[in-house]
Amino acid sequence: MANQEQIALLSQGVEVWNEWRTDNLKVPINLSGANLAGLDLCTINLHKAILNGINLSSANLSQANLCEVSLWKANLRGAILDKANLKDANLIEADLCTASFRKANLYNVNLYKADLSQANLCRAYLYRADLSEASLSQVNLSEAYLCEANLNKADLSGADLEGANFEGADLLNIRFDSDTKWSSIGSWNNARGIPQEWMDGSSQEDEVPQRVDGAIVPDVSSDVASNSVLLAD
Predict the structure, then answer these.
(1) What is the pLDDT of residues 167-204, one digit of tens each?
(2) In angstroms, rounded to a whole number, what is the distance separating the alpha carbons of residues 227 and 132?
(3) Backbone CA torsion sign across 144, 130, 158, 54
(4) Residues with Cβ < 8 Å from 30, sequence gap 6 or more?
(5) Which of 76, 110, 117, 223 is deepest in the core (most CB within 10 A)?
């Protein structure tokens, strides 16, 4: 259950919350089940917070620090998480329909069975992300960095994969259809389970760039509590 004192503090605004958080880094944060739908939480520091089942639908979480948070079965439908830092976050079975993660850091994030239908993950950093059995129908993954990501049994029907990097990714048993845009995938070197249809229609050469063109790979060993922009504009 959500800590009501923390809910009251949060109601005073992000600036007040972040100042308190800086002085109380060791205090556990639990906002599970809280209704924060539609709030402007841009740049908020929720590092390691427990947010299971929280309602953050249509909330603005752009550039937020969500490293190592637990958002199990959370509702983030339509939320804005552009340039947010979700390194090592747990989003198992979360509702992320139509949410925007443009240029977000999703390193090693757990999105098992999450619903990302129609979400915007353009140029997002998804290195080693677990997207197994996730719904990615009509998702925008253009120029996303998915090296070593797990997409086993993911649904990519109608997804935009143009320019995405799938090097070393697990593509076993993925689902896709005639509306899936895969013809200009940046790379799938060393990926497992590449669909035969993709290989038959591919114009890829043996030598493919190691990263998404124009994207800067974040230094994931840096201080995870920072709210710095992780990908270039």
Answers:
(1) 999 999 999 999 999 989 999 999 999 999 888 876 56
(2) 28
(3) negative
(4) 1, 2, 3, 6, 49, 50
(5) 76
